[in-house]
Automatic annotation (TrEMBL):
GO-annotated molecular function: NAD+ binding; prephenate dehydrogenase (NAD+) activity; prephenate dehydrogenase (NADP+) activity
Ranges where the Prephenate/arogenate dehydrogenase domain occurs: 1-244
Species whose genome carries this gene: Haloarcula rubra
PROSITE patterns xrefs: PDH_ADH
Entry annotated with the keyword Oxidoreductase: yes
GO biological process: tyrosine biosynthetic process
Protein name: Prephenate dehydrogenase/arogenate dehydrogenase family protein
Keywords: Oxidoreductase
Lineage top rank: taxon: Archaea
InterPro entries: 6-PGluconate_DH-like_C_sf, NAD(P)-bd_dom_sf, Preph/Arog_dehydrog, Prephen_DH
Lipid metabolism recorded as keyword: no
């Protein structure tokens, strides 16, 4: 299998490495940053190709930031002879773009629900048009120890409002509001929150910004926090018991 990975960041490298190890794929990387493509090719194995390549590939995987995913799919999906996939993090828009740009090949949107350094983990999958090439890719991901599960684009994108946009907003809001206190004062709850703050703020700020821009969820967290802050004892008790 000959695979083009569009996007030389950590997720593109994860996808390429997975196919290299578990599908015996031959890899090519492309990126608007040609040096990044060369570094990815050197690190994972394969070759770097220019961003305006006219080569054709069995499989094209788009692994770019969410705000530019549909544009990249429109540009590179026609280069696929068997299948086009994305690992960008949203699903409805990319799947629609794939159907438009490559209606006659296999199409799937994958969302690894983890940072690549934390692999393996759960991988959400929407198979819009199946086929042998899509099966090989999904088989390689499973062989790497990941748990794949089929969903729908609507179900996935709605879930991301809670598990990504809302969860990140809640953790970051706590980080913004919390005072710096000595470790000896931390409770199990506050200590756990501090650990989550470290996990979230240890990532890529641009990735987290893209999530907030793409998915709703932060406003709901802000409204809930205001409801708690404004509650009197009786109202708070009722809220607490409802949540319990």
């Amino acid at each position: 299998m000959n695979c083009l990975v569009v996007g030389a960041g950590s997720m593109g490298r994860w996808f390429g490495r997975t196919l290299r190890d578990h599908a015996d794929a031959t890899l090519a990387f492309t990126d608007l940053d040609a040096d990044a493509a060369r570094r990815a090719a050197d690190a994972v194995g394969g070759r770097a190709v220019p961003s305006d390549t006219a080569d054709r590939f069995d499989v094209v995987c788009v692994a770019v930031p969410m705000p530019v995913a549909e544009e990249a799919i429109g540009e590179y999906a026609p280069s696929a002879t068997d299948a086009v996939l994305d690992v960008t993090g949203s699903m409805a828009g990319p799947l629609a773009a794939m159907e438009t740009a490559a209606p006659d090949v296999g199409r799937a949107s994958l969302h690894p629900l983890f940072a690549p350094e934390n692999a393996p983990g759960n991988v959400a999958v929407v198979t819009d048009a199946g086929g042998d090439a899509v099966d090989v890719v999904l088989g390689a991901i499973a062989a790497a120890g990941n748990e794949t599960f089929e969903t729908t684009a609507a179900e996935h994108d709605e879930a991301m409002e809670t598990v990504q946009a809302g969860a990140h907003a809640a953790v970051l809001a706590y980080a913004m509001a919390a005072d710096d206190v000595p470790d000896r004062f931390h409770t199990p709850v506050s200590g756990g929150l501090a650990d989550l703050v470290g996990q979230v703020t240890g990532g890529d700020a641009h990735v987290y910004a893209d999530i907030q821009e793409t998915f709703e969820g932060a406003d709901s967290v802000a409204e809930a926090a205001r409801e708690i802050a404004d509650a009197d004892a009786e109202t708070f008790t009722a809220l607490y018991e409802d949540l319990s």
